[in-house]
Amino acid sequence: MAANIVLPSLTNWTEQHITAIFQATSQDDFTSAVNAFLSDKVQITVNGQSVSRTDFVNQLSAETALEQSATVTFSGAVEVPADSTQPVAAGSVGVFFNALIAEKLRVLGGPVTRQVATSLNVVIAQDPDVPQPKPSPIHGDFDGRRVKILNEVFTDTSVPVTVPTA
After folding, report:
1. CATH hierarchy code of domain 10-127+144-159
2. d(CA 124, CA 145)
3. Which of 27, 56, 116, 159 lies at a CB distance of 3.0 to 4.6 Å from 99, suitable for a disulfide?
4. 20-26: long-range pairs with CB below 8 Å, 24+
5. Going residue by residue through the chain (166 aa), what tens digit of pLDDT does each one get?
6. CB contact at 8 A, 118 and 96
């Protein structure tokens, strides 16, 4: 019996990929999550500064290197399809989210915790550079979507360690 792949909405796709990046538990998982999200030719702006894909990925990797766990909470989203007749194929998405990151480092027995607050706008399109898989018994849409343009505004703050009192 063949199963059909149903592509998620642009907003769900964006949120799933962001969560996968922040919750990656190994360097291989992180690299796979980033490559499934960003085009190799993505244009990136962070806090008003243009950055290369390599620098952006290195920054993300450094932010998550000491991570023990992360909780990503989305506060809002807006989505505009590029073509209303094919609403999941391509378009623009804006999301606002917080990532609460518990690091492996401990202070007074508790994990060092950081909060990343982000407003992220992305333009998603079918990426012709993504190789299509060989035919399989699973039918449906191939998901060659990748972020072509990313504009991020974020802050990264330490969460104060609270010491339990007796």
Report:
1. 3.10.450.50
2. 6
3. 116
4. 21/60, 21/64, 22/64, 22/67, 22/70, 22/72, 22/99, 22/101, 23/69, 23/70, 23/72, 24/64
5. 445 567 899 999 999 999 999 888 888 999 999 999 999 999 999 999 999 999 999 988 876 655 667 889 999 999 999 999 999 999 999 999 998 887 755 555 566 777 888 999 999 999 988 887 766 655 566 789 999 999 999 887 766 555 555 5
6. yes
Using DSSP's 3-state secondary structure scheme, residue 13 falls into helix
Distance CA 74, CA 15 (A): 8
* Residue 22 phi, psi dihedral angles, 5° rounding: -70, -30
Residue boundaries of the structural domains of the chain? 10-127+144-159
Taking alpha carbons only, the member of 23, 33, 37, 55 closest to residue 125 is 37
Whole-model pTM: value is 0.83
